Amino acid sequence: MTPDPHHPPEDEPDAKQNAELSALLRRHASRHTAGNPLRAAIQTQVALADASRPPRHAPRLSGLRRWVSGWRGPAIGFAAGLACALPVAMLLPAGALRLPANGGFQAAVLHPAELVASHVHALSAGPLYQVASSDRHTVKPWYQGKLDYAPPVPDLSAQGFPLAGGRIEALHGEATAVLAYMRRLHVIDVYVRPSTEPAAAPSLQTERGFHVLTWRVGGMQCWAVSDVEAGELQQFAAAWRARSAGP
Q1: Which parts pass through the membrane (predicted)?
Q2: Structural domain that includes position 180
Q3: pLDDT at residue 93, as a whole number
Q4: How far apart are CA 66 and CA 87, in angstroms?
C-alpha cells in the first residue's frame, strides 16, 4: 500500500513526542553523581554480563540471552546521567545473569600487567570492594549467586593481614572474585579463579613497581597484587596457603 502523504504513519507523533521529551530532559533535568552503592551494584552486574558473553565460536544465543548481553551500555548511561535507576538486578529475572558452569577458567592466562592495571584502577577510581567487611562470614556469602564457584576467604588478621572486603571483576570474559586485604596502609588484591591444575608454590613477578605473586592451592588459582615488600607478600601467600589448603 502506498503511504498517504497527508496522513503520516502512526508512529511519527510518538517519535516527535519522544524527541521533545528528550530535549526537555537535557535542558531542565538535574544531574546527580551516582552513589557508591548504586555504582557498585551496576559494576557488579556489568562484570557478570561481560563474563556471560560467549566466545565467537559459541552457538548463537537465544533472544533473552542476547537481550541480557546487550543491556550493558544503556544501563551505565542511565545510571551516570540521572543516577535514579533501580539496581539492574531488579530488572532481570532471578538468576538471569548467573554464569553457566563451564571449564573455561583455565583457557585464559592473566598477565601481570593487566592484573596491575586492574589493581591500580580499583585503588584510584574504585570500587576497591563491593562488599566491605573484615568478617569472612559476611564476605564469602556475598559471592553466592554471583559466581559459579565459591572463592576461599581466609581470615588472616592474626598474621597481620586483615580482610577489607571483596568485589567482582571481568577479566578475559570471566567474572573473577577479588578479595582486598590490608597490610598497614597497603592494599593486597587477591584474584581467585578455579583451577584443575595441581597445587603449585608461589611464583613472584614485578610489574611497574608492583609485585604479582601467583600460586595454586585447594582447587584455586590465586594472584596477589600489591606494592608491599616482596617478603611481606610472600608471607601473605604462605599464610593464605596454610589456611586455604584442601584435604
Answers
A1: 75-97
A2: 104-244
A3: 37
A4: 20
